[in-house]
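Q&A log
Question type: sequence-to-structure
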Amino acid sequence: MSDITINMSSASANGLVIRQGNQLVLTPRAEALKPQLERWLNDFEKHILFQEQFDPATSSRVFYIATSDLVEQMLAGPLLTHLSRIAPNTRVVFTKLDKRGFASQIESGEVDFSISVMESNHPSLMVTTLYRDEFVSIVRHGHPLLKSSDTVQAFCQYPHILAAQGKTLKGW
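Response status: OK
Response body:
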């Protein structure tokens, strides 16, 4: 009868534990993942395992929403009116959207969620599209463009203003 051995060198490079004697020892990769894993487990406990049932009628929770000034202006009135009926003791705090760090705002608990025109493929965020919008043109009452039958050609003859973010020429 012969002993069967396994070469662990390739497994330890990609694995999380290696056997040393009769114990399992964390690899350097596993050690590097520990802080992130602890945060995930804490979030899991806080948001899944020990989450209290949310009752809007009795909740006194404060919700922090990161968004732009425009979205806040459009949303604040109707949202607060609706919440005053269904969740009278809740409060909403709108905070400035950090375009480069909104994922960390959410992960850290600084904000509960974000409403923005930016797309994200960040692995720890759940993203839902609320609606899709096309470019909209606004002209004054009585503008000649309103009477044109060849709207695309006529549209291109007039100067335009494009609302965009930062230095980009991508409008929103």
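Response note: The radius of gyration is 26 Å.
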